[in-house]
Amino acid sequence: MAEFVLKDMVRKRGVADYFEIASAATTTEELGNGVHRGTCALLGRLGISCAGKTARQMCRADYDAYDYLIRMDSENIRDMRRICGGDSASKIFRMLDFTSRGGDVADPWYTGDFETTYRDIKEGCAGFLEKTLPGTY
Q1: Measured on CA atoms in the order 26, 131, 4, 11, is the torsion positive or negative?
Q2: Are 89 and 81 in contact (CB under 8 A)?
Q3: Cβ neighbours of residue 24 under 8 Å, at least 6 residues apart?
Q4: What local confidence, expressed as pLDDT, does residue 137 receive?
Q5: How far apart are CA 35 and CA 20, in angstroms?
Q6: Domain that includes residue 114, residue range
Q7: What is the pLDDT of residues 4-36, one digit of tens each?
Q8: For the whole model, what pTM was predicted?
């Protein structure tokens, strides 16, 4: 969800060319699967497409390729640090680290509450853009 929300935000702000946005799993359970139907339905109502996306595994090379590695919760952070061999360049963040409240984004896979997850992600993405593009909007 976060990949597509952030892509939509940067496109609407006219700054998409400044970003390379992708998502990857830290576990192998969903590899090759498409986006969850609940996420697709919510994003579809908002006019945001997630068509063609399939899950891929995060790898160590991602750490070098990206400036920011953003996860939804503390468990993902632990997995990411394991995959990357740590976080020597301080690139790993939780999504809600970019908000005033912090914490973990609730996983709708377990809660079934895609709306709350969307609101958290939208707020986190907006905070991320404020940090990375100050004064642009």
Answers
A1: negative
A2: no
A3: 55, 56, 57, 58, 59, 62
A4: 47
A5: 19
A6: 2-132
A7: 999 999 999 999 999 999 999 998 888 888 889
A8: 0.91
